[in-house]
Design goal:
By secondary structure, the protein is mainly alpha-helical. The protein has ten helices and no strands. Helix content is 82%, strand content 0%. The longest helix has 36 residues.
Length: 233
């Protein structure tokens, strides 16, 4: 039989071990819960796949906290019911496309016209949040900045907003150049939808369109110069 002081010491050690084990189990449970939550955020996965070059690779301009910033925006912009509806739609897309990285994901989406229309519908519903563009931009910047400040002490500026907007929606501008696509948008979302979307895109993609126009002008100038040189030979 142990002396009283030894018994007390063993009891204290036992309690400390029990407390440590329970703490570790809580940490493991919390970690699993967080992974499960991330795994179920299909809408976020789809959206982030468009903007991932902004926070990964050599040309990254944002920290990874932009991911949580985007999720906060989507939840607050749509509310829990619509968010869950969009999340289920994104789940349907991702479930049918067993791919790895973001590039492979969009290559698979683009190969399947019906899946592409499904994905575009999700991004169009997000784009509608910018129908009043100045107000929509202000809300987006405010929510994302608050989250990123909390997560990584990073200030999300208007320049960052336009970079994110371009990454998310530039592909829709390219599609809007097709009359058939504009007709489909009007059919699916109501008359005048394509005009509304184009107007939103013009405001959000202004910088991108200027860069694109500049590139086209340079290319046209080089082609014209080449033709002049050929004519002089």
């Amino acid at each position: 039989m142990l002396p009283p002081e030894k018994a007390t010491q063993f009891a204290q050690v036992g309690e400390e071990l029990k407390s440590t084990i329970l703490e570790k189990l809580d940490q493991v449970a919390q970690s699993v819960s967080e992974r499960d939550t991330r795994r179920n955020r299909f809408l976020l996965r789809l959206v982030v796949s468009r903007v991932s070059p902004l926070f990964s690779g050599n040309k990254a301009i944002l920290p990874r906290s932009i991911i949580e910033g985007l999720d906060s925006y989507l939840i607050k912009a749509f509310g829990p019911i619509i968010y869950e509806e969009l999340n289920n739609e994104a789940d349907h897309i991702l479930w049918n496309l067993a791919v790895g990285d973001d590039r492979e994901l969009w290559e698979a989406i683009n190969r399947n016209p019906s899946v592409r229309r499904f994905a575009d519908t999700i991004f169009i519903r997000i784009l509608f949040r910018f129908d009043n563009f100045p107000a929509g931009k202000k809300i987006f910047v405010s929510i994302v900045d608050r989250t990123m400040q909390d997560r990584s002490n990073f200030t999300f500026t208007e320049d960052h907003f336009f970079a994110v907007f371009e990454a998310m929606f530039a592909h829709l501008w390219s599609e809007a150049q097709s009359e058939g696509q504009r007709i489909r948008w009007d059919f699916l979302f109501g008359d005048g939808t394509s005009s509304r979307l184009i107007e939103i895109l013009k405001q959000g993609l202004g910088r991108w369109l200027k860069r694109k126009a500049g590139g086209n002008i340079l290319a046209a100038g080089r082609a014209a110069a080449g033709r002049r040189e050929d004519a002089q030979r």
